[in-house]
Write a structure and sequence with these properties.
The chain has 765 residues and is mainly beta. The chain folds into five domains: 87 residues, no CATH class; 137 residues, Immunoglobulins (Immunoglobulin-like); 300 residues, Transglutaminase-like (Coagulation Factor XIII, Chain A, domain 2), CATH 3.90.260; 110 residues, Immunoglobulin-like (Sandwich), CATH 2.60.40; 82 residues, Immunoglobulins (Immunoglobulin-like). The protein is built from eleven helices and 42 strands. Helix 3 crosses helix 4 and helix 3 crosses helix 5. InterPro entries: Ig-like_fold, Ig_E-set, Papain-like_cys_pep_sf, Transglutaminase, Transglutaminase-like, Transglutaminase-like_sf, Transglutaminase_animal, Transglutaminase_C_sf. Interacts with PLAAT4.
Length: 765
């Protein structure tokens, strides 16, 4: 902005020289200081903080003597230089320099387990001491001198909000956990051991030193080279994220890659994901996400608040967060979600542009949420098979039919995803009753709103297991995902609806995460729910339902049947026949006449179905004795169905849905297509030299893939790599060896850990 003649500008208390700042300075508090001339124009500035002096007051500079030398031009504002050695009163304790000992291979970074971060600044974990060294212009005398460390974070640091920290050397702050003690002293240096509070705000701090002596007070100017990062500390017992298992810490905090599971419960697929939490620039990108949300710095010491903000910001709804979700199949304006193989490219792009990245689906959102590992919170990705999406807080999956048992799609808003991926984070929950610490669900996929915004969690896994859906946050929605029942309603002649069947074991199967210390799948279903059909599991379901919108469902159980129905299929491979078998069992003493209907339709993994492409009906008489029919018995009902890739469309279907209706019962299941098999073969990797990579895959389709691309990313690799391989046909075919450049520091060499395969829609050649 251009300031007219006679208009004065106020700036805050100048506490450092910062050549990268628009004004060349950093600010802390407002003080009256001496006027400075303006040379030309000033950039647009933020609104004046509350309590700032009137704009009519002259611009003043702190601590400058009356007989200033000619002003030093700095940007658009002429600033007086800091006092020279000759201007310092004799006997004043002056700090001429500071060594934070932040080298990656140094003792501080190694002790705090932050040496993997590709940063040169000091990065420490709260609640744990670190060492620094001050350079002095005269010897330190504890009888004459007082030294105080000053740390500030955020735009308006305040002592009352723990964003402006003053730490007297040798005098611990009672109850605050901050302290600094002298470990060594020489004629020109002072070594200190600094301890941070285990509740400290996480983020990037400005760091300075104040001294007091008989000759007066001195403050070392703030210098951006002396900024430090403070993170959560899962190794500290007093920290809310403390995790008492070393192997878990290695896996869920320090491991830079993992496995994400997808597919169906009968055909589990897996993909490697590069979290890259230690890569260059990623820590700043993660902190930028909190800034974009406008999260107050005073709340950044609480992992509950931080994880909840991350769950909101990883999706773009409400707040222009990191990723735009897209389930349409049209990804022409961005990146196909299946093409991402890691978080690094996504986070860097968002940090660089400030615009949401195109596109993501559930596993991509979950992969990016592991930025919580960057902050120091133990985090893992979790896949739930047959995952329910409850839209009306009934805590049941409600499926409606007309009088002839035909689905009423206009009423069937609930859906069952063949898989859904979210995150578990480890923390204490002082906001809940005792017993609900530990793993907490955080889900960034935008499905339903929570308090008006698209976020989900953190929610105690223990609360979910026991149906305690009144405990925050978002327990009803998460409980329904893992342990709701399918409730089938039929329209009656008078227009009302009656429950005709409740399927109790349909939701929440094979809940999976990567095993600690290996690449195997670890089933964690038992921490989310009691054994299916057990008394404890049924009690949890009914406890949860009592807090839902259809609390009456389990009061009068009138849906009992003596005829049971099950459906089984052979392995479904795209383009090949699929056999479907329906088995009926009559547990009653008299015969039953059952009307059977079968419907088959394509379905996305989110539970959204296409048009029915196959349906059949049959009347079956079942004798009144315990007998199973359908597998070669007298009432066998075996259908052969051709399942093919949809042509002439931009989509291929993730799976298909089969429905069998018998009498007053209905059973719905999904079957998936076999995923492409992938294997990765790496040659010897030498730091700084090109490495040959070969990937072999099998296309099981009787069609040629077109426009196929391999995506490769790994911690320490110079940049994510995409390789076009054209049309690989439908046989085994290795790609030509591809060069990969691991441009990384020798002592921290890491080989590529993630690869993925992506192709546009199949074409019929």
């Amino acid at each position: 902005m251009l300031l007219p003649t006679g208009v004065h500008l106020w700036i805050p208390h100048v506490s450092s020289w910062h050549p990268n700042s628009p004004l060349g300075i950093l600010f802390s508090t407002w003080d009256p200081l001496i006027p400075l001339p303006l040379q030309s124009t000033l950039p647009h500035s933020d609104p004046q903080p509350q309590g700032a002096p009137s704009p009519s007051t002259p611009l003043l500079l702190w601590g400058a003597p009356a007989d200033l030398p000619p002003p030093l031009a700095c940007g658009h504002l002429a600033l007086a230089p800091p006092p020279t050695a000759n201007e310092v009163p004799a006997g004043m304790l002056v700090v001429s320099g500071m060594d934070l000992m932040g080298q990656r291979s140094g003792a501080n970074r190694r002790a705090h387990r932050t040496d993997e971060f590709e940063y040169d600044e000091l990065i420490v974990r709260r609640g744990q001491p670190f060492d620094i060294r001050l350079q002095l212009r005269q010897p330190y005398d504890p009888e004459l001198h007082r030294v105080c460390l000053e740390l500030l974070i955020g735009p308006t640091p305040q002592v009352s909000k723990a964003t402006h920290i003053l730490v007297p050397v040798g005098a611990p702050l009672p109850g605050l956990g901050w302290s600094a003690e002298v470990t060594d002293s020489t004629d020109d240096s002072l070594s200190l051991r600094v301890s941070t509070a285990p509740t400290a705000v996480i983020g990037k701090y400005r760091f300075s030193v104040k001294t007091r002596s008989p000759a007066g007070e001195y403050q070392m100017p703030f210098d951006p080279r002396n900024e430090i990062y403070i993170l959560f500390n899962p190794w500290c017992r007093e920290d809310a994220v403390y995790l008492p298992h070393d192997d878990w810490l290695e896996e869920y905090v320090l491991n830079e890659s993992g496995r994400i599971y997808y597919g169906t419960e009968s055909q589990i697929g897996e993909r490697t994901w590069n979290y890259g939490q230690f890569d260059k620039g990623i820590l700043d990108a993660c902190l930028y996400i909190l800034d974009r949300r406008g999260m107050p710095h005073s709340g950044r010491g609480d992992p509950i608040n931080v994880s909840r903000v991350v769950s909101a910001m990883v999706n773009s709804l409400d707040d222009n967060g990191v990723l735009v979700g897209n389930w349409t199949g049209d990804y022409s304006r961005g990146t196909n979600p299946s093409a991402w193989v890691g978080s690094v490219d996504i986070l860097r792009q968002y940090h660089r542009t400030g615009y949401p990245v195109l596109y993501g689906q559930c596993w991509v959102f979950a992969g990016v949420v592991t930025i919580l590992r960057c902050f120091g919170i133990a985090t893992r990705t979790v896949t739930n098979y047959n995952s329910a999406h409850d839209t009306d807080v009934s805590l049941t999956m409600d499926i409606y039919f007309d009088e002839n048992m035909k689905p009423l799609e206009r009423l069937n808003a609930d859906s069952v995803w063949n898989f859904h991926v979210w995150n578990d984070c480890w923390m204490t929950r002082p906001d809940l009753p005792s017993g609900y610490d530990g793993w907490q669900v955080v889900d960034a996929t935008p499905q339903e709103t929570s308090s008006g915004i698209f976020c989900c969690g953190p929610c105690s896994v223990e609360a979910i297991k026991n149906g305690l859906v009144y405990l925050k946050y978002d327990a009803p929605f998460i409980f329904a995902e893992v342990n709701s029942d399918n409730v089938y309603w039929q329209r009656q002649a008078d227009g009302t609806y009656k429950i005709v069947y409740v399927e109790e074991k349909a939701i929440g199967h094979l809940i999976s995460t990567k095993a600690v210390g290996s690449h195997e799948r670890h089933d964690v279903t038992d921490i989310y729910k009691h054994p299916e059909g057990s008394e404890a599991e049924r009690q949890a379901v009914e406890t949860a339902a009592r807090h839902g919108t259809k609390a009456h469902i389990y009061k009068n159980k009138e849906w009992g049947e003596d005829v049971s129905l099950s459906v089984e299929t052979s392995e479904a491979i795209t383009g090949q026949d699929v056999s479907i078998q329906v088995a009926l069992s009559n547990r009653g003493s008299s015969s039953r006449s059952v009307s059977l209907s079968l419907h088959l339709a394509p379905m996305f993994y989110t539970g959204v179905t296409g048009s029915i492409f196959k349906q059949e009906s049959r009347q079956v008489e079942i004798p009144g004795e315990p007998e199973v029919h359908g597998k070669g018995g007298p009432n066998a009902w075996v259908l052969s169905v051709q399942v093919q890739v949809e042509r002439g469309n931009s989509n291929t279907w993730d799976c298909w849905r089969r429905e069998a209706v018998g009498g007053s019962m209905k059973l719905a299941r999904t079957s998936g297509f076999s995923p492409l098999s992938l294997s990765q073969v790496l040659g010897p990797a030498v730091v700084g030299k090109e490495t040959q990579v070969q990937v072999v895959f099998k296309n099981p389709l009787p069609q040629t893939l077109t426009g196929a691309v391999f995506h490769m990313e790994g911690s320490g690799v110079s940049s994510p790599k995409a390789t076009n391989i054209g049309s690989p046909g439908f046989q085994h075919r290795p790609t030509p060896p591809q060069p990969l450049d691991p441009t990384i520091l020798p002592e921290l060499g890491r080989e590529p850990r993630s690869s993925g395969f992506h192709h546009p829609p199949c074409s019929n050649h």
